[in-house]
Amino acid sequence: MCRQSISADTVNVLLGIYSAITSHAQQLKSEKVVQVELQKACSILEIPEPPLVFFENESYQNYLNFLHGLLVSNPSFVEEKNIEPELVGVCEEILRVYLECAGLNSVKKKPDDKAIYQWNLPLGSAKKEELVARTPLVLSVLRILCSWQTDSFRKYISQLFPLMIDLVRSEHSSGEVQIELSHFFQSCIGPIIMKL
């Protein structure tokens, strides 16, 4: 798709579609009753269960790619349509879903409250498989954040830094996450700290 030639109205429609699909995929994945019914129906029909995690990941990946593409190729849309905050929101949500899957349950009720940490139990095989499936999406988020200019990133550090700390603390299915996290801290956090 040639992003240079699409109008602002078209971008708004596409953003709405990506947002709705992602929201629907996340809701579908979180509905335990629906999942049980799907399992029953699939076992009766002797067909494999639908890949809900894959559907959720693909919807997030497409949304993330579209936002990042707009950010890179259409600077005029960035400020006009608040693309940066929307991209950060999607990145935050992806990281939260991954951290929840990794068993890291730090919950903040209000901005002033301290995080409440719970014991992390070893992950079961189903959660480990889900973590493996979600890893490429988290790697995409880290790479996108590393590609930002320091000034752009600085605006959102208070939102993203706690999630990055939780990523450091969590279990990962791949060593790639630690490598990208290291790169993130060196290229994004390091320059900010050095300027203090």
Task: Assign the structural class, choosing from mainly alpha, mainly beta, alpha/beta, alpha+beta, or little secondary structure.
Answer: mainly alpha
Number of helices: 9
Radius of gyration: 18 Å
Shape by Cα distribution: flat
Mean pLDDT: 82
Biggest sheet statistics: none
Compute the number of structural domains: 1
Helix coverage percent: over 70%
The span between the termini is 42 Å
**Total beta strands:** 0
Task: Describe this structure as you would to a colleague.
Helix content is 73%, strand content 0%. The protein is mainly α. It has one domain. Helix 3 packs parallel to helix 6 and helix 5 (83-101) packs parallel to helix 8. It starts with 7 loop residues before the first helix and ends with a helix.
Question: Which key features would you list for this structure?
Answer:
single chain; 196 residues; mainly alpha; 0% strand
